[in-house]
Design a protein that fits this description.
The chain is mainly α. The protein has a domain at 268-469. The chain is globular, with a radius of gyration of 22 Å. The model is unreliable at 508-512 (pLDDT under 50). The chain has 21 helices and two strands. Helices cover 74% and strands 2% of the residues. Strands 1-2 form a two-stranded antiparallel sheet. α12 (269-293) runs antiparallel to α13 (297-318), α13 runs antiparallel to α14 and α14 (321-351) runs antiparallel to α18 (455-469).
């Protein structure tokens, strides 16, 4: 039976976007529509996750058409967890935007575009069709470009154009890979492609598709050497947007890479994982060292994202059950913590007249904020550094354990060393903003009634703290994800017609 909750999860934000456009005369009404639409999407994402845990993989055939002729939405544990993660953080993003005083947020197009961006994000996680995956990503990219272009920052249009051109390159790689797969196997359904690759052999075009898709996903997640675009774009975007870009939207590439090595190109996965492991080490140190030397709070967190994604790549590269569970934990935890930290810098920016988070101008700015904000920031920094009792500590323990299991003790040592770098730049920034006294360069303060509310980041850090103290449920979910994706036939057999095609190909496949 088709799971209708899947359809509602993906398309409730776009329905909200249409309603928000109709209500464009009232910005307050648009804010309520945006927040309520995101809450509805989260409710349905929760139902999909629960159904997946209780009943197994959930499927919805668009228009009643069975694949490979029709588009199908598929929610296994991987997509269900990523979808739930994205929907949860998006609610916090709308909650922050609800109280934001940025001029961009007052635009008639802001909330419709923000909801459209959420539709693209959720659709990319839940679709079982690789071309529809491309369509949802393009919807996400175009919405992000529009939101960045309307930023209060005078460099917003320039950053949006850079993002458009650079992600256009990623989209070109993705489309080339999709075209090569379709040319090779005559299907766009991911389960069907997986069956064809398993039983139909590996042709040259399929190998080219693997390379193109890998490059595309690396660019989408700003993985070295495709990391160069991220700091400028994430620093310039409006705070609610940058908080989503640097926390959940970069997970699109991670999700794609996991699908690549666990479903589509399993035999070639060893080579891909080895490359990802080395790139993970480079990303960890390059991101950490860049964050240590940067001049701006949002840039610090953008570089930190490159480093944190590096830890996820290590987990994928080591490919033990513990390592993959650690990668899932890292991706999940990072989404909550990084979005909260960026929102906190947005709160700092909203409190000064220059609307800046350049460290030179926000020295001691934390004294003008509610006292608890400094402790929220400290807990978020501890989560990024992987210190107890935060959720990041659990993920790093799992990752270190898996590194020792595969015998790469020297990589574990490097990982711990990079964690010290993370602690250094996080605590330096905390001390600079919240402990030092304002000096002659500190930007003048704005009216207290006009600064953004710290409620959303506080709630996110509280969730991160709870996931650290009561870690068993999230660990169980992550292990369930690993158990499911480690056997690709679970995904294949859940998709209608994929079983029939599997039997047909087994019948006519030449004997080896």
């Amino acid at each position: 039976m088709d799971q209708i909750f899947l359809l509602f999860t993906v398309f409730s934000p776009i329905i909200g976007a249409i309603v928000a456009l109709i209500a464009s005369r009232s910005n307050v009404l648009q804010r309520w529509i945006g927040l309520l639409s995101s809450v509805v999407a989260l409710m349905f994402a929760t139902l999909v996750l629960r159904a997946n845990w209780v009943e197994g993989i959930q499927v919805y055939r668009m228009g009643g058409w069975s694949p490979p002729y029709g588009i199908v939405l598929v929610a296994d544990m991987l997509s269900s967890m990523f979808g739930f993660m994205a929907a949860s953080v998006m609610v916090a993003g709308f909650l922050y935007a609800f109280s934001s005083h940025d001029y961009a947020v007052k635009s008639k197009a802001f909330f419709p575009l923000f909801l459209t961006m959420e539709t693209g994000l959720l659709g990319a996680f839940y679709t079982g069709d690789i071309f529809t995956f491309f369509v949802f990503i393009e919807l996400l990219v175009l919405s992000s470009v529009g939101l960045t272009a309307m930023s209060d920052n005078r460099l917003g249009v320039e950053a949006a154009m850079k993002y458009l051109f650079i992600n256009g390159m990623g989209s070109m790689f993705l489309l080339m890979g999709i075209g090569a797969l379709y040319t090779s196997y005559g299907t766009l359904n991911m389960a069907d492609i997986a069956v064809s690759i398993q039983l139909g052999g590996r042709v040259l075009m399929a190998t080219l598709a693997m390379v193109a898709l890998t490059c595309s996903f690396m660019l989408k997640s700003a993985i070295f050497p495709f990391h160069f675009w991220q700091p400028d774009f994430h620093t310039t975007a409006p705070t609610p947007v940058s908080a989503m870009l640097s926390s959940v939207i970069v997970k699109i590439g991670i999700y794609g890479l996991i699908r690549l090595v666990t479903l589509l190109f399993i035999e070639e996965g060893t080579l891909i994982r080895m490359a990802l492991g080395w790139l993970g080490v480079i990303s960890i140190f390059l991101g950490s060292l860049s964050a240590l030397r940067t001049y701006n709070g949002k840039r610090l967190l953008a570089f930190s994202t490159s480093a944190q994604i590096g830890y996820v790549l290590l987990g994928i590269g080591w490919n033990t059950p513990t390592a993959l569970a650690a990668a899932i934990l890292f991706a999940f935890n990072h989404a909550f913590v990084k979005s909260a930290m960026l929102m906190l810098y947005g709160v700092v920016a909203s409190r000064n007249q220059a609307k800046t988070v350049d460290f030179e101008y926000i020295v001691g700015m934390g004294h003008a904020l509610p006292p608890y904000v400094r402790w929220v920031y400290l807990l978020g920094g501890m989560a990024l550094a992987g210190l107890p009792p935060m959720n990041g500590f659990i993920a790093k323990v799992f990752l270190a354990q898996s590194g020792l299991e595969v015998g790469t003790w020297w990589m574990v040592g490097l990982m711990i060393g990079a964690s010290l770098l993370t602690s250094l730049y996080v605590f330096n920034s905390w001390q600079l903003v919240f402990l030092q006294e304002p000096n002659d360069h500190t930007a003048p303060l704005k009216d207290p009634a006009q600064f953004d509310s710290p409620l959303a980041p506080t709630l996110l850090i509280a969730v991160a703290l709870m996931m650290g103290i009561f870690a068993s449920p999230i660990i169980d979910w992550s292990m369930r994800v690993v158990e499911q994706i480690s056997e690709p036939n679970h995904y294949i057999q859940a998709v209608p017609l994929a079983q029939e095609r599997l039997l047909m190909l087994e019948r006519y496949a030449p004997e080896s």
